[in-house]
Amino acid sequence: MKQTVQTLQAKKQQGEKITMLTCYDYTTAKLMDAAELDMLLVGDSLGNVILGYEDTISVTMEDMIHHTAPVARGAKNAMVVADLPFLSYQTSVYDAVKNAGRLMKEGRANAVKLEGGVLIRDQIQAIVNASIPVVGHIGMTPQSVNTFGGFKVQGKTLDAARKLLADAKAVEEAGAFAVVLECVPEKLAALVTKELSIPTIGIGAGAGCDGQVLVYQDMLGMFPDYCPKFARHFAEMGTAMQDAFRRYRAAAQDGSFPTQAESFTIADEIMAQLEQEA
Ligand code: KIV
Q1: pLDDT per residue over 131-187, tens digit each?
Q2: What is the per-residue pLDDT for 7?
Q3: Which of 43, 96, 118, 237 is 20 to 30 A from residue 261's alpha carbon, by CA?
Q4: pLDDT digits over 24-42, tens only?
């Protein structure tokens, strides 16, 4: 069954957890869809894990559309959410609606996600008014890494916790249908979850959220650059892949790959004729 704004909001009401992973390509989207994930996020984290940047600042609209379209083709049931990248919405309400529209029209996303609370209330409202479902994203918002002075847990002081609550309420009031809470103390995330009627989806925000999201390379143990404290490895695919790459290299070098069964045949008389002519 295709996940929609309504089915996801019903999950919160029924106390059923929402499951989301990042996804950046068709093959992985098909695997995640078959595993019955509720939501696939084409995150601008593709800047880190696909494009090799140290942060998400350089990710462009073209990058996002390029990766959203194949995910949308692979996901039959999961809702596909695409990130609006840095400076594609902060600049104006017009830019926000235009670029959210591009992710829907060209990328075939089902919803868009943008980072920020009170400060981008108008952008969220305008995108929702254009009939585009919005997921908010507050707490540690990676596009603001240069303001935060690094990837740090947010909301730890009384003032910062009050600001986070205000951001969460602003996102809900502006019309977002869900909100991601990133790197927020678990008790504060649980309070936000209680205060909001829309689902909260946590990443480094504890078990009290209505759902969870992880970057898939982190949860598969295949991203060597760093591993956040909250990213449990559900497999060691990095080690498994390296092992397979090594075994392939060895087999190709010693000639045990490919075998006859892995090769194509041609009639002997044709070969005999060709060899005579050569
Ligand atoms: O870009 C991304 O992967 C995200 C998640 C960390 C929520 O926004």
Answers
A1: 999 999 999 999 999 999 988 999 999 999 999 999 999 999 999 999 999 999 999
A2: 98
A3: 237
A4: 999 999 999 999 999 999 9
Report the chain's mean pLDDT, rounded to a whole number.
97
112 lines ligand 1 (CB under 6 A): no
Q: What's the CA-to-centroid distance between 261 and ligand 1, angstroms?
A: 44
* 182 is a catalytic site residue: yes
Distance 89 CA to ligand 1 centre (A): 17
pLDDT tens profile 184-224: 999 999 999 999 999 999 999 999 999 999 999 999 999 88
**Which one of 16, 182, 236, 275 is the catalytic residue?**
182
213 lines ligand 1 (CB under 6 A): yes
Give nearest CA residue, ligand 1 atom 8.
43
Q: Please work out whether the CB of residue 44 comes within 6 Å of at least one atom of ligand 1.
A: yes
Q: Which residues in 244-261 are b (16+ Cβ under 10 Å) and which e? A: eeeeeeeeeeeeeeeeee
Calculate how far, in angstroms, residue 44's C-alpha sits from the geometric centre of ligand 1.
Answer: 6
